[in-house]
Known about the structure:
Number of domains: 3
Shape: extended
Helix content: 40-55%
Low-confidence stretches: 1-34, 211-217
Strand order of the largest sheet: 1-2-3-4
Structural class: alpha/beta
Number of helices: 9
Strand content: 5-15%
Amino acid sequence: xxxxxxxxxxxxxxxxxxxxxxxxxxxxxxxxxxxxxxxxxxxxxxxxxxxxxxxxxxxxxxxxxxxxxxxxxxxxxxxxxxxxxxxxxxxxxxxxxxxxxxxxxxxxxxxxxxxxxxxxxxxxxxxxxxxxxxxxxxxxxxxxxxxxxxxxxxxxxxxxxxxxxxxxxxxxxxxxxxxxxxxxxxxxxxxxxxxxxxxxxxxxxxxxxxxxxxxxxxxxxxxxxx
Length: 226
């Protein structure tokens, strides 16, 4: 994401990228062309990195507090469930996350004492007493979120607008057209009776809801209806 933003900002700069039109800056910096960059060039690159807004281009809604306490926290590093979830504790992604969370939760004890039960206890303390501060730490520096809220978790997660309090710009919603079609079908079926299935009007409504998924997904603002 950041690399893409830098590429857009710097790849057309002839002074920074002598290979303009031939070799992307990201590749040029990893080759022998690095010798061609002087201190001033590197300062400009550092400034671009530090000033380019951070955009999370595909996020999902945060779980609300009650749901977060009922979903196994180890599932953050795997899509496994039930019995298979027990195997995640030896996976590379889990071990890496456990080390990174040590910093997030401000653990200052000895490394030998840092294990999963201690992590869960420390996390619970943050969630119970400093949840807002924890979220601020996680979102620090994020300019805007593109939120995919099409997962069927409406009763377990915060609305996408709720996340605006932690970002510089309002959250944008990635609309899943197939989810919108599903909701239309649910409303039709909830109010239908056997006689409706034979009516032309009902058939047209069902047909309309089925063709919706062929429409490309789009991003909307928090105050825009679809």
